[in-house]
Amino acid sequence: MVITGFSGCDREEPGKIDNRDRAPMLIHWADNIVIPSYENFRTLLGELTNASNSFAESPSSSSLLELRNVWTDTYIGWQKVELFEFGPADKYTLRNFFNIYPANVAAIFQNIANPSANLDVPANYTTQGFPALDYLINGVGGNDGEIVEFYTDGVEGPARINYLQKLVTRMTSRLDNVMAEWNTYRDTFVSRTGLDIGSSTGLVVNAYVLYYERFIRSGKFGIPSGAMTTSGGTEFPEKVEAVYKRDISLTLAKTAHQAVIDFFLGKDAMTGETGPSLKSYLDALDARDVTSGSLLSEIILAQLEVAQASMNPLSEDLYQEVLTNNDGMIAVFAEMEKATRMLKVDLTSAMSITITYTDNDGD
Questions:
Q1: Would the N or C end of the chain have less CB density within 10 A of its end CB?
Q2: What is the C-alpha separation between 348 and 193, in angstroms, rounded?
Q3: Least confidently predicted of 20-29, 98-107, 274-283, 331-340
Q4: Three-class SS state of 226
């Protein structure tokens, strides 16, 4: 429970912003966080395109290894932009085409056999993006030699190569659409300074909290571990992220969670310096916890950092963790659950933001 005070809101104190003026925060988000983050990720995606083309031209163990390494770097990079599912990214439903997992293997083979398959329909979200590429470069064989043979097969190989390249091309095209849209959307974004449902602050906070709750807390830990009430305690190790390249699953989770912390602090994507942010905005409102009297921003930040640290004892392979150390997975989920409630209830209440999305997992 929080209380919000407005005394002293006219004072210009270092590190604080005028709580009646959200424009500086929106400008900082757009110009120093969202747009440059997409630009950084676009560079990685270009490298993935080059690596996939090189593999397609000459499938070999060495070109496969290069493709896998670049895919890994790009997948890690994606974790830093996935939280920006508002505005153009929401319009183009970017996440649906980049990271809905686990991949549907049977449907992938159907699409390989049918080059005209419509990949824009929801049924095909799990046949593309990083999870599908995970299967195609890590899971189609028991070793690198078998994976290369999958693509050099005289009959089926060309169609398989074409599908792999198609997925990378689609990701590039989708991202380019989002980035191009930001060129015009940026001015609209920074001008909507209210707190109503259509305001930019409202859109960002809803996307931010939803991402944390559904795609980090639940997707990366709650569902695989069986901690979600809807799963009835059943463990689903096969639903971890990067299930065919399991030794990066923890890195993906840590990177995504750190991105949430960095956005809360308003860290510049290029310099790492902090600017107007959710934290500074809460401080400008003098939002405090009723029980302790501490600044709400400090309580939220502390819990986010506890959740981040709770991942440290886990091994890089979250699939194996579910099988042999599921209590550790559930412990992470529990800490993220605490942070979720702070973001979804305390933060939004203090900022007078209405949560507009729905969830059915008991929160």
A1: N
A2: 16
A3: 20-29
A4: coil
Place of tokens 């190569």: 161
Q: Kindly tell me if the per-residue pLDDT of 301 is higher than 60.
A: yes
Give pLDDT, residue 13. 45
Is residue 199 within 8 Å of 192, Cβ to Cβ?
yes
Residue ranges of alpha helices (H) inside 127-198 are 129-134, 144-152, 157-191
Contacts (Cβ under 8 Å, ≥6 apart) of 52: 67, 164, 165, 168
pLDDT bin (cut points 50, 70, 90) of residue 358 is confident
List the structure tokens of 250. Answer: 């923890």
In the prediction, which pLDDT does 230 show?
A: 56
Three-state secondary-structure class, residue 115: coil
CA distance 255 to 274: 18
Lookup: tokens for 200: 């930019």
Give the DSSP H or E segment for 77.
Answer: helix 61-78
73: tokens are 């770097």
Residue 106, C-beta contacts closer than 8 angstroms, at least 6 positions apart: none
Concatenate the DSSP letters of all residues of 281-350 into one string: HHHHHTEEETTT--BHHHHHHHHHHHHHHTTTTS-S-HHHHHHH-HHHHHHHHHHHHHHHHIIIIIIHHH
pLDDT in tens, 203-244: 999 999 999 999 999 999 999 999 985 545 789 999 999 999
Q: Report phi then psi at 2, rounded to 5.
A: -125, 160
Which of 242, 307, 323, 263 lies closest to 75, judged by CA?
A: 242
CB neighbour list of residue 272: distance below 8 Å, 6 or more residues apart: none
Give the pLDDT score at 52: 98
The residue-averaged pLDDT of 60-84 equals 98
pLDDT classification of 290: cutoffs 50, 70, 90: confident
* Burial (CB count <10 Å: 0-12, 13-18, 19+), residue 314: buried
What average pLDDT does range 303-311 have in this prediction?
98
For the record, the structure tokens of 161 come out as 């190569």
